[in-house]
Amino acid sequence: MSILFSEFKEWKEYCEEKGVKLFEPVLEYEKDQKGKDADFVWENLQKAYDVMRDAVKTGLEEDMQSRSGMINNGAKKVYQNPLTVLDPNFQKLIARALAAKEVNSCMGRVVAAPTAGASGILPGTMFTLQEIHGLEDRKILEGLLVGAGIALIIEQKASLAGAVGGCQAETGSAAAMASGAIVYCLGGDIDQVFNAVAITIQCMLGLVCDPVAGLVEVPCVVRNASAAAIANSSAQIALSNVSGVIPVDECVDALGEVGQSMETKYKETAMGGLAMTLTGQSISKKVLIQDIEMLEDEDNGE
């Protein structure tokens, strides 16, 4: 019988008692939810990862300009920049996270992980991790299952939706999924995986959802890149056995508490933060006019 854990503590205790790896209970849960065997789950995980990689490739090779004009091939500009702030791997990480999210903003095909608004974080991190360490696809897929298990608990204890808990719930959860998956894929133990999740949540706590013009473009795209960087820094810290002090379950509780306390204007309504700046309001009016003109053209065509 599959188990949906309500706490990270339960997940750890189960794995230690049964002598199984972190991904295995999540695999059983997926099998039960879909009424299929393990081969079906692995096959569809592979498809999902292929879509992630394709999104990265598309964002770096094709024209990525959104209808609003706010997205304009940013990923390619980062990827092709001869000046690197740290090293080429960091540059690739940032560019890839941007690329996959730009594909979403330009109405392309992505994997919601856990949401479309955070769809650049896992592709950017896992693609780069695999390239650097020469990991097999199977190990990455196991990491994705670990990430899914992380998201399932966050969803129960807090939220994955920006409309409920702000951007901390979307990009924060995705970064936590990525950080835990990174640590798992590099051979970290359960405590290190969960510590990475805790540290990531601590770094993302309080981030509001304030999309300019109500579009998942600004600041959403660049936040995917910064979240990918945080996921990697948290993984490095956790793998070095530096404690986040606050246990992961308590960090998720804090995520939920902050989300509940956050004003509605900071929850995907475009009524606060960057969306309400002078420039943000100007862009919003421009987008509204474009939408009206498009509707008029459609009416005339009829």
From TrEMBL:
Which cofactor(s) are needed, names only? [4Fe-4S] cluster
Q: Name one GO molecular function term.
A: 4 iron, 4 sulfur cluster binding
Q: Which domain of life is it from?
A: Bacteria
Q: What class of enzyme is it?
A: lyase
Q: Which reaction does it catalyse?
A: L-serine = pyruvate + NH4(+)
What InterPro entries has UniProt attached to this entry?
Answer: Fe-S_L-Ser (IPR051318), Ser_deHydtase-like_asu (IPR005130), Ser_deHydtase_asu (IPR004642)
Q: What keywords are assigned to this protein?
A: 4Fe-4S, Gluconeogenesis, Iron, Iron-sulfur, Lyase, Metal-binding
Protein name in UniProt? L-serine dehydratase
Species this chain originates from: Marivirga sericea
Q: What is its EC number?
A: 4.3.1.17
Q: Where is the Serine dehydratase-like alpha subunit domain?
A: 17-275
* Family (UniProt): Belongs to the iron-sulfur dependent L-serine dehydratase family.
Question: What pathway is it annotated to?
Answer: Carbohydrate biosynthesis; gluconeogenesis
* Family annotation (PANTHER family): L-SERINE DEHYDRATASE (PTHR30182), L-SERINE DEHYDRATASE 1 (PTHR30182:SF1)
Does the keyword Endoplasmic reticulum belong to this entry? no
Which BP terms from GO are recorded?
gluconeogenesis
